[in-house]
Write a structure and sequence with these properties.
The protein is of the alpha/beta class and about 150 residues long. The chain has helices at about 30, 50-60, 75-80, 120-125; strands at about 5-10, 15, 20, 40, 60-65, 65-70, 90, 110.
């Protein structure tokens, strides 16, 4: 534990903002969705960047929000490609919080939601069942299309 960690359970559950350093990218704190002020850090060896991206993509069943900070566009593209289905909201060089419903579609993927993007037309599709109805007022007199005719 690098910082914080104190708790008070007299009324509800309270934990101070906490920073934890782990050497295991599959540590419980890296895998579980924790609704609290807990930041878990895993420092990967630079040559293992792509391998670490794949670990991030496969570790947690949750996928609400993710972000990457990089100056190299190739790295941004690589991370975006590998982490394509890792989070419903993905930020590049920006904080991974603060989406404003109605201005930015917001919704998680995997076990963090249905990815239906509250605040957008995509959300409406979740609640409707489109149906097409065709009615003819002139009954057909044949069923053959021109492509079915003998040449």
């Amino acid at each position: 534990m690098l910082a914080g960690g104190a708790h008070d359970d007299r009324v509800g559950y309270f934990i101070q903002p906490t920073v934890v350093l782990t050497q295991n990218p599959r540590h419980r704190l890296m895998d579980e969705e924790i609704f609290g002020p807990v930041l878990t850090l895993y420092v990967y060896p630079e040559p293992k960047f792509e391998e670490t991206l794949h670990v991030c993509n496969s570790t947690s069943p949750y996928g609400l929000t993710g972000s990457i900070f990089a100056q190299d566009r190739r790295i941004v593209q690589q991370a975006s490609d590998v982490l394509r289905h890792a989070a419903g909201n993905f930020y590049v060089n920006d904080k991974p919080t603060g989406a404003v419903v109605g201005l930015q579609p917001f919704g998680g993927s995997r076990a963090s939601g249905t990815n239906d993007k509250a605040g957008s037309a995509l959300n409406l599709q979740r609640w409707v069942t489109p149906r097409t109805i065709k009615e003819s007022f002139c009954p057909p007199i044949g069923y053959r299309y021109p492509s079915m005719e003998d040449v």
